[in-house]
Design a protein that fits this description.
With 128 residues, the chain is α+β, with helices and mostly antiparallel strands. It has one domain: 60s Ribosomal Protein L30, Chain: A (2-Layer Sandwich). The chain contains two helices and six strands. The protein starts with a strand and ends with a strand.
Length: 128
């Protein structure tokens, strides 16, 4: 089975976890900006009526498309600046957990890239 998803908007990375201390207890939480972005991603994915994959192997292909800065020369093709690709993937995989798949540990094959394009967003292909 193959499912294709499109998410419009500037791709954003997963933020660094934040720590707090209450007495002898140290806790960790997701920054508010990351939490809100993942909720937005989840809502856009759920609106595309994905078929839930309870178990089994998953192959994921992702393309993160960024708006080309006007000052960037046309000969520059690859997006080699921040954000890091692995941080972009973390936010996306977290948002898809519970909507498209049970656990992102089911992903056995992963292909991802960053590109410049006319319409910023994320294109994903999920195969099971």
């Amino acid at each position: 089975m193959m499912q294709t998803f499109y998410i419009l908007g500037d791709p954003r990375p997963q933020g660094r976890p934040r720590f707090y201390k209450r007495g002898n207890f140290i806790g960790v939480y997701d920054p508010k900006e990351s939490r809100n972005y993942k909720q937005t991603l989840a809502a856009q994915i759920a609106a595309q009526n994905p078929e839930y994959i309870q178990d089994g192997a998953i192959s994921l292909e992702c393309e993160f498309i960024f708006a080309r800065p006007k000052t960037l020369p046309k000969k520059v093709v690859d997006h080699t600046k921040k954000p890091d690709l692995d941080n972009l993937l973390k936010a996306l995989k977290d948002a898809m957990t519970g909507i498209v798949w049970h656990d992102d540990a089911q992903i056995v094959s992963l292909s991802a890239r960053k590109d410049y394009g006319d319409v910023p967003g994320i294109k994903m292909v999920v195969r099971s």
